[in-house]
Amino acid sequence: MTITFPDGFLWGGATAANQIEGAYNEDGKGLSIRDVLPHGLQAPPTEGPTADNLTLTGIDHYHRYAEDIALFAEMGFTVYRFSIAWSRIFPHGDDTEPNEEGLAFYDRLLDELEKYGIEPLVTLSHYETPLHLARAYGGWRNRKLIDFFTRFARTVMQRYHGRIRYWLTFNEVNAILHNPFTAGGIEAPRQQLSETELYQAVHHELVASALATKIAHEVDPANQVGCMILAVPRYGLTPHPDDQRKAQYEAQLDYTFGDIHVRGEYPGYTQRYFRDHGIDLEITDADREALQHTVDFVSFSYYMSVAEAADPAAGERGGGNIIGGVVNPTLEASDWGWQVDPVGLRIILNDYWDRWRKPLFIVENGLGATDELIDGGPDGRTVDDDYRIAYLNDHLVQVREAIADGVGLLGYTAWGPIDLVSMSTVQMSKRYGFIYVDRNDDGSGTLSRYRKKSFDWYRQVIATNGGSLRD
């Protein structure tokens, strides 16, 4: 029997405003935390914007969005995930009135999507906390950010009522434990922050997320709200029970955030973790009531898996394992050290479905690689990215198998359908797209767009609803 994707399955791609838009200081936009991170996660923030920060101009999507969306439509996208830059709507984050020019930009973007019948999937906070909130309030450590965020959420949900049906609250909400400035606007080195501070900050985000879900359903009962989780399967490095328990333990720390979004309360294993580690959070009765506003679906990113070892000296700490774990010796790795594991995607889909019984949505998956622009293709220049085609094909085959397993899946948005500025390294050379953007790590380039070989491959996948995938 031929296994197919369900009718109505949503196919598309995903981006973030801070990685593509540019125009960091145009039309009333304020600064975001990404505007002071010219060297990514490995260096401290700068005082203000600097000329070497590729994020400031991105790929100029702010001025070229119509051209880019037309290319997405040519591939056959039925959904496009993007984020609304908080500081484009509320330049400081704590403003009492929104910036009309910022709201109008997303009106125009939605006009283009509607022209082609592409469903918008919108992230409210994709590593884009307004810089003022980070520096004047201490980021998400401060409970006041809940009100600022819900004001932002209500503003855009009312403005785009009936135009946006699918919403995500916080991108990779569990990442704050690993990258507190990027994910939580907390401008302090990770090693200087206590676990109580980090979990209190993410608690504030969880409450804000739940309240945004409540607002979405009040504004329009047809709205569908999802959480967004960084998904990383964790395997025991060996069959030894201690390694297996270590893998389970680390996985539970990841599950915490989905469990709260779906079930509306902190799970018992998390409460034990807090007791064992002396973590004492301020959780009010109002917070507990707010958390009862649970999500309609669970979305996640998937790029890699890791292995876990009970012995701290066991295994190799790979450069790509940015959220812990050790290198799995059975897997190959990408140019940036991220271990390639298509079967892990099937595992996580089954795991999440069995755990939460909520519709799932893969909203990030892709291969960051070094591409070479050569002569050829419909635009005169192209990239023979067979390695990207193989990566995505193998992952989508496993998605198809998970659907056959009974997993309820809404759609798939490949990360970076067009080359964009890397979040972790602030490079252009780490390319994900089906569309090549002529921009280099030193900022040079014409910004011209070129269809890669994978462009037509993905167009065929969408046109056949996955039928063209190769086992």
TrEMBL record:
Keywords: Glycosidase, Hydrolase. The keyword Electron transport does not apply. It comes from the Bacteria. Gene3D superfamilies: Glycosidases (3.20.20.80). Belongs to the glycosyl hydrolase 1 family. Its EC number is 3.2.1.86. GO terms for molecular function: 6-phospho-beta-glucosidase activity. This is 6-phospho-beta-glucosidase. SUPFAM superfamilies: (Trans)glycosidases. One of its GO terms (cellular component) is cytosol. The gene is abgA. One of its GO terms (biological process) is carbohydrate catabolic process.
